[in-house]
């Protein structure tokens, strides 16, 4: 076995071990719990809010013989994160001519806040990054040895990637520019690329055609995005706010290495302009995707910067290679270089993510300003700012307590965040099938919806008393009385 493959296996196994050690151990709140449940029961949700490719690929993980089903779904994120880092190992040394710089850049991405967080939680993001990284590797190999199949393969990957997450569509122009830049038979290569993209999209279009409503929703979502993007360009204050937010986010991810990445991009622009341009377009496309949905942009969308962080990893490796070269001339040993690099990456990251950022967020009441709430057993500040999720059983404990306390044939109204934890226990593990779990009514008041079930002799409960619950409609009709983890709605005499 050659040394490159050996190191690659070490990268993969080390990363997977690290992510499993910090993996969320069971069901989580909100969208996470929803994804865990859908994957576990084989329910396929389409865009704009679903990730059908990941749903399908993560499903086999639920057949593993250890942990609960939610843990196994979480494991799929760790697996694809580790594969992404493995692909980077087979990409970066050829670009930088430095194994040390490549390893350090991979490490910087591996423990960056967003990448680490979504390597231990159940979402499609690490599969997205694996697809994008593999596509770049194939394009670089194609540049060295032009053949037809890599172009088609990259197109298929991007088409499938859009089926995984719509953000991949914003990366397509960057890949297209790279193909055009190095194409020897421009028309033929672009035709192969387009055929590949169409082939990758075919399963997605088929799925959308089977559910016309979802197809319409997806088209509406895309058109809304284009409209909002045009509005953003026409409103400089919001655009500048978004750019400042992007800069802050990148600095938070890569900390002291951010200037190194920017310097590396400048050096790459001199030495490998086509790749630098493609990565800039991938970065800019993702930033545009993130800034549009919310105006002004706020931290609730930080997770969608993940393709931008991947794009920045390549120039980061380039900049680190230049530094390593200068250190080599100063006669510093490779061990000293690696030790210095590890300290520069690991120490600031751990200090920031585990100590400085959470304490600063508490001091400035960040979660209150964003309108976020705590849940039983979960501190939202810690959840947002600390990437590791090992030991977080809060959602499971809440759901178990709530279901255990409910009387026979009870009705439980819940907003989405606690709803998914209870849904998981019911749909996947078979807890309390007699309980009717319902999302909060949207076409009638909570009081009217409660009346329907009370008339059938069924006790009615709500999961929380936060702003999502129409408590005003209950005044004069029901008394809200806490019963353990839930609240019973008792008719007034």
Enumerate the strands of the largest sheet in spatial order, edge to edge or round the barrel. 2-1-3-5-4
Number of domains: 2
What is the share of helical residues?
A: 55-70%
Per the principal axes of the C-alpha atoms, what is the gross shape?
Answer: globular
Content of β-strand: under 5%
- Class by alpha and beta content: mainly alpha
**SSE run:** HHHHHHHHHHHHHHHHHHHHEHEHEEE
Q: Using only CA atoms, what is the Rg?
A: 25 Å
Major sheet details: 5 strands, mixed
Number of separate strands? 5
Distance N terminus to C terminus?
80 Å
Mean pLDDT: 91
Number of helices in the DSSP assignment? 22
Which regions are unreliable across 5 or more consecutive residues at pLDDT < 50?
295-299
Descriptive overview:
There is one protein chain. Strands 2-1-3-5-4 form a 5-stranded mixed β-sheet. Mean pLDDT is 91; it is low at 295-299. Helix 2 (30-41) crosses helix 4, helix 2 packs parallel to helix 21 (416-427) and helix 6 (99-110) runs antiparallel to helix 16 (306-329). It is built from 22 helices and 5 strands. The chain has 493 residues and is mainly α. The protein folds into 2 domains: 3-362, no CATH class; 394-491. The longest helix has 30 residues, at 334-363.
């Amino acid at each position: 076995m050659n040394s490159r493959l050996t190191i690659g296996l070490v990268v993969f196994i080390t990363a997977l071990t690290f992510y499993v050690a910090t993996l969320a151990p069971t069901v989580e709140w909100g969208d996470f719990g929803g994804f865990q449940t859908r994957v576990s029961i084989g329910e396929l949700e389409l865009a704009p809010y679903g990730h059908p490719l990941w749903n399908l690929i993560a499903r086999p993980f639920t057949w593993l013989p250890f942990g609960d089903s939610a843990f196994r779904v979480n494991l799929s994120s760790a697996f694809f994160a580790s594969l992404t880092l493995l692909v980077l190992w087979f990409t970066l040394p050829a670009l930088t001519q430095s194994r040390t710089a490549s390893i350090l850049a991979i490490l910087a991405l591996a423990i960056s806040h967003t990448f680490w967080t979504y390597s231990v939680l159940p979402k499609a993001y690490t599969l997205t990054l694996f697809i994008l990284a593999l596509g770049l590797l194939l394009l670089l190999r194609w540049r060295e040895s032009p053949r037809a199949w890599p172009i088609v393969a990259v197109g298929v990957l991007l088409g499938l990637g859009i089926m995984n997450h719509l953000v991949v569509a914003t990366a397509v122009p960057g890949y297209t520019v790279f193909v055009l830049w190095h194409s020897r038979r421009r028309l033929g290569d672009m035709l192969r690329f387009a055929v590949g993209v169409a082939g990758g999209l075919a399963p997605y279009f088929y799925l959308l055609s089977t559910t016309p409503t979802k197809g319409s929703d997806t088209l509406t979502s895309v058109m809304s995005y284009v409209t909002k993007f045009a509005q953003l360009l026409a409103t400089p204050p919001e655009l500048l706010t978004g750019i400042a937010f992007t800069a802050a986010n990148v600095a938070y991810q890569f900390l002291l290495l951010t200037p190194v990445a920017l310097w590396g991009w400048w050096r790459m622009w001199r030495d490998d302009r086509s790749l630098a341009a493609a990565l800039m377009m991938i970065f800019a496309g993702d930033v545009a995707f993130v800034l549009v949905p919310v105006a002004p942009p706020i931290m609730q969308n930080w997770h969608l910067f993940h393709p931008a962080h991947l794009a920045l990893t390549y120039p980061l490796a380039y900049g680190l290679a230049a530094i390593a070269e200068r250190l080599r001339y100063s006669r510093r040993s490779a061990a000293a270089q690696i030790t210095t690099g590890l300290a520069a990456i690991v120490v600031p990251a751990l200090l920031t993510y585990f100590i400085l950022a959470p304490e600063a967020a508490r001091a400035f009441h960040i979660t209150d300003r964003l309108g976020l709430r705590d849940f039983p057993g979960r501190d939202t500040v810690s959840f947002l700012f600390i990437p590791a999720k090992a030991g977080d059983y809060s959602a499971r404990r809440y759901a178990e307590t709530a279901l255990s306390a409910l009387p026979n044939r009870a009705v439980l109204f819940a907003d989405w965040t606690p709803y998914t934890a209870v849904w998981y226990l019911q749909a996947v593990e078979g807890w309390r099938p007699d309980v009717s779990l319902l999302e909060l009514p949207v076409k009638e008041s909570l009081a009217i919806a409660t009346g329907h079930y009370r008339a059938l002799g069924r006790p009615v409960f709500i999961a929380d008393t936060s702003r999502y619950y129409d408590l005003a409609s209950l005044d004069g009709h029901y008394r809200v009385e806490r019963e353990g983890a839930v609240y019973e709605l008792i008719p007034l005499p």
